[in-house]
Amino acid sequence: MAEYDYDLITIGAGSGGVRATRLAGGSGRKVAIVESSRVGGTCVMRGCVPKKLLVYGAHFAEDFEDAKGYGWTIEGARHDWPTLIENKQKELERLEGIYNRILRDNNVELLRGRGTVVDAHTVAVDGKTYTAEKILIAVGGWPTMPDIPGIEHAITSNEALDLPELPKRVTIVGGGYIAVEFAGIFAALGAEVTQIIRKDMILRGFDHSMRAGLQEEMEKKGIKILAETTVRSIEKTESGAYNLRFAGGDEHETDLVMYATGRAPSTSGLGLEEAGVKLNDKGAVVVDDYNKTSVDSIYAIGDVTDRVNLTPVALNEGICFFETVFRDNPRKMDYENIASAVFSQPPIGSVGLTEEEARKRGRIKVFLSRFKPMKYTLSGRDERSVMKLLVDAETDRVVGAHMLGVDAPEIVQGIAIALKCGATKAQFDATVGIHPTAAEEFVTMRDPVPEPDAEHTE
Ligand code: NDP
């Protein structure tokens, strides 16, 4: 062991990298982590956490309106964007402090600077080299934007989280998680939001009923969704606004253009290929079931491997890496039934197969419920929740559960445990509901949707 400076050097102090490295450090290994930006990575500094704080902040707008039906008079409610951003910033500083403390407490040395791989056992950090028995690549991903004229005028979610003020008109390009989440935030806080999607519907890959239901609710909230629209160019106008030109020739003026058109693994310039590490055609690091790359001493976890790009997955991959490499306990991540959420307004919670995927695998029964949440009866809000269970007709196993509506992510987390345990519809039916809740709908859906009327099969 003495022939290397460290047992492990990790490049990238995001969720996955920190988890794996602090476990190794805490178990007595000599470890270091390289980070050029803020400790905490995308999720904590530029993604999930600040985004969710903005979602909370934005939702008060509807809560104030809904309160009226319950007898409240709320006068002079006004939102101050800089206060929200400043308080969010303070919270991120607090979290960064916690992450730094976790590293210190577990004897992880923080090497500040940009790390590159020199060879199978050597990492360079801003010109200085260090050797390690194992190297872990956990550098995550970065937003990508199409190369069109004027794209330099557009921002990504990175900048959207730190805008000095909320523009009057915001245009978001893209139809994925990030686009719908930010459309909801900006619209609730009072901006006129236009969302431009290149296909007919948002959130490709999600269950059709959730996609259609959310698109409808977003439009009800005043978000203008321009479907089947492609932006060809962006120009800055004399007034300081931006003019978008579409493929069909139409134009659209806005005060802010945000692109949320996907993310790519941050492997460029890392020296991986030169060191013999295989990348796929999207630039993601290719790994085996145990997170090992094509070089025996180099491993990779998280978004840089472009498997399932979610923080809890990176954390689990980090734990699997630690168990396999440092505890002689080979452990693979199980990618079945990973629940996820979209923090749109209303949000989506989802686990297992979509109806489209389930139908491809065999005969299924579809249980569907649409209802107005109880909270909105007195407030008069016209918002519908949608719940769906997909059941394998042969085995009675629930293979998918989806919900659009208030608290969907919180509810589906519990349902995910049932799916992980292989629960059947009969077991869902035998579960006594908690009344009155929206969640009880998941255990009271008795009649499948009649086949001819079954939801979209694509
Ligand atoms: P996604 O991959 O989810 O969505 C990208 C969107 O951009 C799609 O709607 C896609 O359209 C569209 N698009 C791609 N290229 C172009 C283009 N050239 N012109 C116009 N539209 C384009 O990416 P996001 O950026 O939203 O999110 C990145 C990742 O971050 C997600 O995959 C997810 O893993 C993670 N994430 C998770 C969250 C959560 O768990 N709540 C929240 C935010 C992010 P089309 O469908 O037509 O291909």
TrEMBL record:
Chain ranges passing through the membrane: none
Superkingdom, taxonomy of origin: Bacteria
Gene Ontology molecular function: flavin adenine dinucleotide binding; glutathione-disulfide reductase (NADPH) activity; NADP binding
Catalyzed chemical reaction(s): 2 glutathione + NADP(+) = glutathione disulfide + NADPH + H(+)
Keyword Disulfide bond attached: yes
InterPro entries registered for this protein in UniProt: FAD/NAD-bd_sf, FAD/NAD-binding_dom, FAD/NAD-linked_Rdtase_dimer_sf, GSHR, GSHR/TRXR-like, Pyr_nuc-diS_OxRdtase, Pyr_nucl-diS_OxRdtase_dimer, Pyr_OxRdtase_I_AS
Active site: H435 (proton acceptor)
Stored PROSITE patterns: PYRIDINE_REDOX_1
Organism per entry: Caenispirillum salinarum AK4
Cofactor: FAD
UniProt family annotation: Belongs to the class-I pyridine nucleotide-disulfide oxidoreductase family.
GO CC annotation terms, alphabetical: cytosol
Cofactor: how and how many bound: Binds 1 FAD per subunit.
Protein name in the entry: Glutathione reductase
Residue ranges annotated for the Pyridine nucleotide-disulphide oxidoreductase dimerisation domain, each copy included: 338-445
Record: residues binding NAD(+): G174, G175, G176, Y177, I178, A179, V180, E181, G262
GO BP, one annotated term: cell redox homeostasis
